[in-house]
Each structure stands twice: as structure tokens, then as C-alpha cells.
């Protein structure tokens, strides 16, 4: 009964958002891991992947813990919301040249692990802000646990199922669009829940949902405008 009560008390909507965010924004992590370990001997690659991933997860949890605490500072939710809108637009309309040629390969395990952790740190800002925002709707006592649980669930999907996920994105582009809209939804909720906004507007659940909807619509509208200005992609020879 205690385990059932525990499971019933979990905010599964927040968990689903965190897992979705990690899958959508975690493609680069799988690429980083593969590139950093490509110089290792085949028998050492699994060890390098394991420790590099473990180090990246620990670092991500620490960063998100700090981010959740910093979101209590006035104006930071607004800044985080603006960043998430930009990330959502970038997700739907990626840059023309988004390569990873600068990720070095290492011939020893700890060199590869160091490369994975450093590269993940540099590229994890979008994940950190998005996950911290997704955890906002949960009870304060659950937030860190939800973040850790979401990361643990999504990391195996990212590492071992990245190729399947990428194929799904190619076959069903609307999944990426919905992912961008999800980031916009979280961004709207962050902005309207900022301490600075509460000095002018009384927070309500209706206002929260309205702002979230506006954020989702804004991301899709701006992404579509950028795609329209770019025109159709060049034909491949």
C-alpha cells in the first residue's frame, strides 16, 4: 500500500515532460558520446560510454539543482522563458550547418570520459533550463526527485535508442514541432510565474494555462515565419 501511495503521489505529467524534453534535446548527447569514444579500442568503448554517461548525468543533476534554486530569483524565470522560446524555435528550424566536427576523439578511456563531460556541460544549458521549468508544476518536495527520475528513464533511450528516435523524427516531423511547442508551453508558464510578474498580476491557474498556450503558439508561429523566409531547402544532387 505504501508503494501504491508513493506512486499515486508522483506528478506523472511532470515526469512525462522531463522525459520528452530529454529525448528531444538529447540527440546531441548521443552524438557527442559516439564521437568522443570513436578512437577507443572496441573492447574499451562500452567502459568509456558508461563512465562518460555517468559523469554527464551527475553533472546534469547538479546543474539542474542549482537552476531550480535560481529560478526563485526575480526576472530569472522570464530570462529562462525567453531562452526556452529560442530553443524551441531552433529545435523546429535547426541551423543549416550544425556539425560536431570539433569533438575530439581520444585513445584512452579517461580522455574520452573527460571529453564527454566537458562537451555535455557546454551543450546542456537548454536541457537544464527546460527540465527545471518542467519541474516547476510539481510540489517543491518532489522536484529534485522528479528530475533525477526523468533523467534516469530518458538516458538509456537517448543512448541506445537514439537512432530509432531520429528515424521517428524524420518520418513524423510533427513530433519535433510538438516538442518545440512543449518548450514554448513551459516558457509561458515560467514567465507568468516569475516573482517580478506577481508584483503586477495576481497568479491564477487560468493565467498559467493561458500564458503556456501563448508560449506554445509563439514558438510555432515564429518557427514557421523563419521557415517561410528561408524558403524551400536546396535540392540534393
Report the structural category: mainly alpha
**Helix-strand pattern, N to C?**
HHHHHHHHHHHH
How many discrete domains?
A: 1
Instruction: Quote the distance from N terminus to C terminus.
Output: 62 Å
User: What's the alpha carbon Rg, rounded to whole Å?
Assistant: 19 Å
Strand content: under 5%
Can you offer a commentary on this structure?
It is a single chain. Helix 3 (27-36) runs antiparallel to helix 6. The chain is 76% helix and 0% strand. The longest helix has 29 residues, at 42-70. It has 12 helices and no strands. The protein starts with a helix and ends in a 7-residue tail after the last helix. With 237 residues, it is mainly alpha-helical. It has one domain (10-226). The model has no long low-confidence stretch (mean pLDDT 76).
List keywords for this structure.
mainly alpha; globular; single chain; 237 residues
Write the topology of this structure:
Elements lengths: L1 H8 L2 H14 L1 H10 L5 H29 L5 H17 L16 H15 L1 H10 L8 H18 L1 H10 L2 H19 L2 H4 L6 H26 L7
Helix pairs in contact: 2-7, 2-8, 2-10, 3-6, 4-6, 4-7, 4-8, 5-7, 5-10, 5-12, 10-12
Amino acid at each position: 500500500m505504501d508503494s501504491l501511495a508513493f506512486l499515486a503521489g508522483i506528478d506523472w505529467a511532470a515526469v512525462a515532460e522531463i522525459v520528452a524534453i530529454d529525448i528531444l534535446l538529447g540527440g546531441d548527447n548521443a552524438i557527442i558520446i559516439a564521437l568522443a569514444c570513436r578512437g577507443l579500442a572496441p573492447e574499451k568503448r562500452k567502459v568509456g560510454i558508461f563512465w562518460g554517461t555517468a559523469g554527464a548525468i551527475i553533472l546534469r543533476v547538479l546543474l539542474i539543482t542549482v537552476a531550480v534554486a535560481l529560478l526563485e530569483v526575480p526576472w530569472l524565470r522570464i530570462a529562462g522563458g525567453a531562452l526556452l522560446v529560442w530553443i524551441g524555435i531552433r529545435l523546429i528550424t535547426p541551423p543549416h550547418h550544425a556539425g560536431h566536427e570539433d569533438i575530439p576523439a581520444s585513445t584512452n578511456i579517461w580522455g574520452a570520459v573527460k571529453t564527454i563531460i566537458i562537451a555535455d556541460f557546454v551543450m546542456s544549458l537548454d536541457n537544464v533550463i527546460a527540465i527545471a521549468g518542467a519541474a516547476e508544476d510539481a510540489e517543491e518536495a518532489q522536484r529534485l526527485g522528479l528530475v533525477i527520475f526523468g533523467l534516469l528513464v530518458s538516458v538509456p533511450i537517448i543512448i541506445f535508442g537514439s537512432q530509432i528516435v531520429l528515424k521517428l523524427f524524420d518520418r513524423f516531423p510533427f513530433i519535433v514541432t510538438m516538442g518545440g511547442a512543449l518548450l514554448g508551453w513551459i516558457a509561458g508558464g515560467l514567465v507568468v510565474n516569475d516573482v517580478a510578474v506577481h508584483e503586477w498580476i495576481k497568479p491564477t491557474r487560468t493565467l498559467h494555462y493561458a500564458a503556456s498556450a501563448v508560449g506554445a503558439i509563439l514558438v510555432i508561429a515564429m518557427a514557421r515565419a523563419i521557415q517561410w523566409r528561408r524558403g524551400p531547402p536546396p535540392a540534393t544532387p
